[in-house]
Amino acid sequence: MDRAPGLSVRLKLTLSYAGFLMLAGALLLATVGFFYLHLPRGAIYATGDFLINTPLLLRSFAPVAAIALAFLLVFGLLGGWILAGRMLAPLTRLTDATRMAANGSLSHRIRLRGRSDEFRELADAFDAMLARLEAHVAEQERFAANASHELRTPLAITQSLLDVARNDPNRDSGELDERLRAVNARAIDLTEALLLLSRAGQRSFAREHVDLSLIAEEATETLLPLAEKHGVTIEPSGDITPTIGSRALLLQLTTNLLHNAVVHNLPEHGTVQVSTAICPESVVLTVENTGDKLSPQLVSTLTEPFQRGTERIRTGHAGVGLGLAIVKSITQAHDGTLTLTPRAAGGLCVTVQLPAAPPHTGR
Q: Please, which pLDDT band fits residue 351 given cuts at 50, 70 and 90?
């Protein structure tokens, strides 16, 4: 925004200090002058060995008062300039940090020392904002690089298959068609996952009253065939858990968690426990599955995009590496918290806590 040039804050504070000091001095001198003006004109008062003549005293008082006011003006301007500079020094550092951030340097921090005041609270808030922004930019850069790599892979495979088919006219077209369909399906799944992740991150969705327990039941019924194929038993339980959010996104969240729990389970006789619970101010969805033992270090990386965890990949079911990343994004978009905990006996316990819906009064 273009603005007309104006006085600096430091100069304004200096003039304010000097003006206030001049006003105080003028009031003091006016009070003294008013006192002597109301003495009887020409009266002579004896005070010890001296005689005081009022008109003569007033004529002598005026130059002294002018000199005193001039001194107060110079002193007020000089002192005000120094004091204003000291008071505005934190603001100068904040301005410099803002310029550096605008030029792309997000690693700089103000780190004002001293006791808390308005400037230090502003600087601390600005440092916290820079830290979050730097982490967000770094995450976006990693995400863009990983997404580019993941999208390039199916395109490169497709190109290789087409080159082989062109160089070998006698190759079975049915096999080529099947492989191309599989690669194309993976590219479509990845693109849809990226779009869903972007939609959840932007919070561009309508909110409504949703029962999380009903969503868990629907997701369980949808994934029962997959669970039977893998020899996994899904055990749902829980209470009515009303919350507010996007039904479609919360269903995607629950489906991703259940799919992840079914696919990354024991080779046989695995179990998945799905439960919902209501707390005073929140609702909780818990998905717990058996499986291989996981280290806390590995679990802490599972919500990062494209971080599948090599120990948990099963051939043919690795997905696109965005399942738990989407769960995390949807949870954050609904102002909730996501907790991943490795089970001592093996497997993973995932807890999603969302704000409870206020009492819904319908007419």
A: very high
User: Is residue 311 over pLDDT 90?
Assistant: no
From CA 285, how far away is CA 273, in angstroms rounded?
11
Query: Taking a C-beta distance cutoff of 8 angstroms, is the pair 252, 322 a contact?
Result: no
Per-residue pLDDT reduced to its tens digit, 86-99: 777 778 888 888 88
pLDDT of residue 258: 94
Residue 248 CA: distances (Å) to CA of 255, 275, 304, 330: 10, 19, 22, 10
What 8-state DSSP symbol labels residue 356? Answer: B
Report CA-CA distances (Å) from 271 to 18, 249, 351.
79, 25, 17
CA distances from 142 to 3, 191, 306 (A): 39, 17, 10
Measured CA to CA, the distance from residue 304 to residue 323 in angstroms comes to 10
CB 144 within 8 A of CB 136: no
User: What's the topology of domain 208-355?
Assistant: Heat Shock Protein 90 (3.30.565)
CA separation for the pair 29, 64 (Å, rounded): 10
DSSP state of 271: E
Q: Rounded distance, CA 310 to CA 270, Å?
A: 20
Q: Per-domain residue ranges for the chain?
A: 9-105, 121-202, 208-355
- For the beta carbon of residue 197, count every other beta carbon within 10 angstroms: 19
Read off the pLDDT of each residue in 255-264 and give the average, rounded to a whole number.
Answer: 91
Q: Which residue has the higher pLDDT, 122 or 1?
A: 122
pTM: 0.58
**Roughly what angle, to the nearest 10 degrees, separates helices 247-263 and 212-229?**
30
121-202 belongs to which CATH class? mainly alpha
